[in-house]
Design brief:
- The chain has helices spanning 6-15, 33-42, 55-67, 86-89, 119-132, 150-162; strands spanning 23-26, 47-52, 76-80, 98-104, 133-143, 169-174, 185-191.
- The chain has a seven-stranded mixed sheet with strand order 3-2-1-4-5-7-6, with helices on both faces.
- 33% of the residues lie in helices and 24% in strands.
- It has six helices and seven strands.
């Protein structure tokens, strides 16, 4: 049977927190895989906010949504903005009410590998993300330590997650320990119910 891939793990964790009609965020749209997943999960009454600094990523995601049967792209609001601007961009009435926020860090597959996520924007983005969550909501971050700059970002995210107050958050890591080549892994943060 095998273990879940890191992407499947992140999707399963997010799916366990999302109810139909909820709001969710794809903080790093990339190819749109997480955007499409979140769009299906929130259903017809929900909304997804998607962020990326590259227009190419937003275009790819919009094309993906248009190709996938049963997805209503009108439920997705795309922002050509850094994930560090989550707090400013998410409507005020949704703050503290987001069920799941997904990060898939690194670079756009098939795009310019010099354009990468970096700790100086990712850590503020994660701080904004946990403030946007509803109680019981979740943040997932897929980390890629195998590319230039990836290890530093992964270590910064690990440090950040490990220092969150235990009274307010639970954090976990899902990682393959015997896979060569610096494989990706997931860190998830749950905001405890009040």
């Amino acid at each position: 049977m095998g273990f879940l891939s890191v992407i499947s793990c992140a999707h399963r964790l997010a799916a366990s927190r999302i109810r139909p009609g909820d709001a969710a965020v794809d903080a790093t749209v990339g190819t749109g895989a997480d955007t499409a997943f979140l769009c299906r999960a929130v259903g017809a009454g929900g909304i997804v906010y998607g962020f990326d600094i590259q227009q190419e990523a937003l275009d790819r995601a919009a094309q993906r949504l248009a190709r996938e049967p049963g997805l209503d792209a009108s439920r997705v609001r795309f922002f050509l903005r850094s994930h560090a601007e989550l707090w400013e961009a998410v409507p005020e009435e949704r703050r503290g009410r987001i069920s799941a926020i997904m990060f898939n860090l690194g670079y756009l597959p098939g795009g310019d590998q010099e354009i990468i996520t970096r700790p100086e924007s990712t850590i503020p983005a994660l701080e904004a993300a946990i403030a946007l969550l509803r109680p019981g909501g979740i943040v997932t971050a897929v980390l890629y330590p195998g590319h230039p700059g990836g290890r530093e970002e992964a270590e910064a995210v690990e440090r950040w997650a490990s220092l969150l107050p235990e009274s307010q958050f639970q954090t976990i890591m899902y990682r393959f320990l015997n896979r060569s080549g610096n494989p990706p892994y997931v860190i998830a943060v749950e905001k405890k119910s009040e």
